[in-house]
Specification:
The protein is built from 8 helices and 11 strands. It is of the alpha/beta class.
């Protein structure tokens, strides 16, 4: 495998499958199969999941929620998704631990870098829920932060699109995909890969990002095997 330790960022929206909200067992099982296959090769895997399939803090503001309360509700949504993925992994025979950035034992152990590394070294997939535990920070920022903390070699952003394009391919049929692109070019072109806080964290700490289509089964194995799918963002 090309990478020995990764941070995998999954979007909450992807977990809803073809529904408008909630959890799709088919998507969960597909993700669990792919992650389990890679975990069995010895790759150490940390995961951060969004919560947009259940509740998104920013959308709550538009409906009258206080921003801080809305973001806290979103943090809890990420923990629901983390537990769902843990259950799916365990049903595949893959040991998994949920660590939370907010104290809520016995739902999950309180996150620390040392605990995450200890569990990964013992063969567990480690799912880190609760975002950064702070309002005004996205789960993209949480994935960048946790990736840096656990000394991951790469941040894999698993999405429903197959990479980074010159424009939104769903709106612009002439958009073309990048195989590789630098952080600076992403800035200069104004491309939306992650929020700027997350993106800057990755750049400053030299954590490369691979954006790829997680919904096509087998793609995670291809990325970890070094195949040039998706888009690699580097210095």
């Amino acid at each position: 495998m090309k990478y020995k330790r990764i941070l995998l960022k999954l979007s909450g929206e992807s977990l809803q499958g073809s529904s408008t909200h909630g959890l799709s067992t088919d998507v969960l099982q597909s993700y669990a199969r792919q992650i389990g296959e890679m975990a069995r090769t010895g790759v150490q895997i940390g995961i951060v999941i969004g919560g947009g399939n259940i509740f998104r803090g920013l959308s709550g503001v538009g409906r009258g929620f206080d921003r801080v309360k809305g973001d806290q509700m979103g943090m809890l949504a990420t923990i629901i998704n983390s537990l769902a993925l843990q259950s799916a992994l365990e049903s595949e025979g893959v040991p998994a631990k949920v660590l939370t950035s907010i104290r809520m034992e016995p739902i999950g152990e309180y996150y620390s870098k040392a605990k995450a590394l200890e569990y990964m070294a013992a063969g567990n997939v480690v799912i880190i829920g609760g975002g950064t535990s702070n309002p005004y920070f996205s789960t993209d920022s949480a994935s960048a932060l946790r990736g840096i903390e656990i000394e991951a070699e790469v941040l894999l952003k698993g999405t429903r699109v197959d990479g980074v394009y010159t424009a939104d391919p769903e709106k612009d049929p002439t958009a073309t995909k990048f195989d590789t692109i630098t952080f600076d070019e992403v800035y200069s072109r104004g491309l939306k890969i992650m929020d700027l806080t997350a993106f800057t964290l990755c750049k400053q700490n030299n954590l490369p990002i691979v954006v790829f289509d997680m919904d096509t089964e087998g793609n995670l194995a291809k990325v970890l095997g070094g195949e040039a799918i998706g888009t690699l963002v580097t210095l």
